[in-house]
Specification:
641 residues, mainly alpha, three-stranded antiparallel sheet, two-stranded antiparallel ribbon, globular, DNA binding, Fun_TF, transcription regulation, zinc, nucleus
């Protein structure tokens, strides 16, 4: 099978000379030569069919049940109140908050100081390396299409052979190019054709793509985006990234390159590989150009660059078999560090006096949340010495806390947790680093105690429809879950609640193990681990209620902390089902290998000193750091997003 045909891609999008975008004034002559060469190359590909004998359908998930709204429509008054963990209770609490602001300013919302803003345009682009032949078939994974043609994991799509008989084809509700769309159901005087005429080519679009790239775009919007989140109204991959790609050429090429890489998993098409490499090289070249443009560092102008970096680093994460050796810093981590720097430079907080008054658009909020998600979750498996001087300022990821107090508690569809909770993960790592340098400190453990208090009461909220919903925690959540015959919840709302709770409990376990240095068999750790395992067991591992919103890092955490057979049974079950049933590319397979190797090492070699609660925290056995050192030595830096 040389290629795929994506049936029904109605976007007739063509790259043409007449649609060339205006370029920056710098390096104008060089740009003209590069652009002319690029357009000539595109013309050689326009007539090539790279999809082959397959028709592709969207996998319908519209029949997923939802819980009825229990709150009066439009009643959002409860969202205007601060979180219980942040609401002042007494004068002593106010004094405690003042203590935190003095000793731990990174724990408090703040706006950046314009006097400290530094913009460094002399930065390297990590994605330039191997950009000419980035995708190859050598050592590349491939996936077999299931018998029914349905892939319902991290991407959601259905394949059918165009040469199969109508009797062999499975019924579907959404076929691209479906000829019955737009049929009149009543007679209209003067209209002889029953069909509504199609929209003009390129209607509503600023960019123009050729037919093959148009199919890739449809694969992205209908297959890739469908597997990103269950919270459809906050699917920024679809609503924000696609819109940015329509306006920004660099983002568009990054999007098409990463999408073509997914298609290559099912079709060994040399023409598709050439097209994928062409888009990747173009995206890398345009990103290098944008990084040297000071306008991209201005407030409100960072969306294009950060979206392009995000797409390219995610491509590096899922194409894990092509990464550099383990002793090298991976591209995805260099990319996340670069994107964090871009977000720091373009922080809208520079324009405000108070963090609660900062207003950011949806693209800024979504992109910053996802970039921080990638960067922050690399820290729990990074040696503390490597993190010093990296994001350890008094305002690390400060833009996560900007906006109204209830806004930072909203669960983001792109990650499954709120910005506040994500920021707490970074705080735990930073406090652990400070304690390692000052083990005799009495002040640092007080800051960790405040985080412990916040996590115990942290209540997130989400919006799957027009009516917002407040997440439950602990026993209230267990009592509210309605389980099916397989012991799984069956609604989007329940999965979202369990996901948010899994992240809250994971933060509690991380705090107890890395900062307070409590061993895996400590009652506090075991209690929280049992609650986390219950969250994971209640959630589906495949099907329409499974997406990349699934709490991957918390599942990995159960693999590090769980030591009893009943603990590891849940972890192993999750990995086996996800890897065996996903039929698509992800970062899960290599992490499962890491978990299995870790179990063997912890059972045979890890030695932990007996825990003594009377010993000062800084002088307890740092067993987590032993584990991290082992992971970093044998596996390199891990991506857990």
């Amino acid at each position: 099978m040389d290629a795929l045909t994506l049936s029904g891609l109605s976007m007739d999008l063509t790259v043409g000379v007449g649609n060339r975008r205006r370029r920056p004034r710098y390096d104008h002559a060089v740009q003209q030569d590069e652009d002319a060469e690029f357009l000539d190359f595109l013309e050689s590909l326009e007539e090539q069919n790279t999809w082959g004998d397959m028709t592709i359908y969207a996998v319908d998930a519209d029949n997923v049940p939802r819980n009825p709204a229990k709150r009066r429509h439009g009643d959002v008054s409860w969202l205007q109140e601060p979180s219980p963990s942040l609401a002042p209770q007494s004068d002593s609490n106010a004094e405690w908050d003042a203590f935190l602001a003095t000793h731990f300013p990174e724990h408090c919302p703040s706006v950046p100081d314009p006097a400290t803003r530094e913009v460094d345009l002399d930065v390297s682009n990590p994605f330039v390396d191997d950009s000419i032949q980035h995708y190859t078939f050598q050592d590349r994974l491939s996936f077999e299409i299931p018998e029914d043609g349905a892939i319902n994991g991290y991407i959601k799509i259905r394949f059918q052979n165009v040469h199969s008989s109508p009797e062999d084809r499975r019924p579907t509700n959404r076929e691209y190019n479906q000829q019955t769309l737009g049929v009149h159901h009543r007679d209209v005087p003067g209209v002889h054709d029953e069909r509504v005429p199609p929209l003009p080519p390129h209607f509503g679009l600023s960019s123009k793509l050729d037919e093959e790239d148009g199919r890739l775009l449809k694969f992205y919007t209908d297959a890739f985006c469908a597997g990103r989140t269950l919270i459809k109204i906050s699917n920024f991959w679809l609503s924000e990234v696609t819109a940015i790609a329509d306006m920004e050429e660099c983002v568009r090429h990054a999007l098409l390159a990463s999408t073509a890489a997914y298609v290559l998993d099912y079709v060994r098409s040399e023409k598709m590989r050439i097209r994928a490499n062409m888009h990747y090289r173009r995206a890398a070249d345009l990103l290098t150009r944008a990084l040297r443009n000071p306008a991209c560092r201005q407030v409100g102008k960072e969306a294009g660059v950060t979206a392009a970096i995000l797409l390219l680093l995610c491509d590096d994460i899922v194409n894990w078999e092509t990464r550099k050796p383990k002793d090298k810093s991976p591209k995805w981590h260099k990319g996340s560090r670069l994107a964090v720097n871009m977000l720091d430079n373009s922080d809208p907080g520079y324009r405000y006096w108070k963090p609660a008054n900062v207003q950011s658009d949806n693209s800024r909020i979504s992109l910053s949340n996802r970039i921080a998600f990638v960067d922050v979750l690399a820290q729990p498996v990074s040696p503390l010495a490597n993190l010093r001087g990296q994001g350890t300022s008094s305002r690390q990821y400060g833009w996560l806390l900007e906006g109204a107090p209830h806004d930072v508690l909203k669960i983001q569809g792109g990650t499954g947790l709120c910005s506040k909770l994500l920021h707490i993960f970074a705080q735990i790592t930073q406090l652990s680093s400070r304690l390692a340098e000052n083990p005799d400190s009495d002040v640092i453990p007080k800051g960790a105690a405040k985080i412990e208090q916040k996590l115990a009461n942290l209540t997130q909220w989400f919006r799957c429809s027009e009516v917002p919903r407040r997440s439950k925690i602990d026993a209230d959540l267990w009592r509210s879950c309605n389980l099916d015959q397989n012991g799984k919840v069956a609604t989007v709302e329940e999965v979202t609640e369990l996901t948010g709770e899994a992240w809250r409990i994971a933060a509690q376990i991380y705090l107890q193990c890395r900062f307070f240095r409590k061993p895996r068999d400590h009652p506090d750790v075991v209690e929280r681990l049992s609650a986390l395992l219950r969250c994971i067991e209640y959630m589906p591992y495949t099907g329409p209620l499974f997406s990349s919103q699934a709490p991957f890092f918390p599942v990995f955490l159960t693999g590090l902390v769980g030591y009893l057979p009943e603990h590891r049974r849940v972890t192993e079950g999750w990995f086996n089902v996800v890897i065996g049933g996903a039929s698509c590319r992800s970062s899960v397979p290599p992490i499962w290998g890491v978990v299995q190797n870790t179990w063997k090492w912890t059972d045979e070699e890890l030695h932990v000193e007996p825990f003594d609660g009377n010993t000062k925290v800084g002088f307890r056995d740092p067993w987590w750091e032993k584990l991290v050192a082992r992971l970093f030595e044998t596996e390199g830096l891990l991506s857990l997003c």
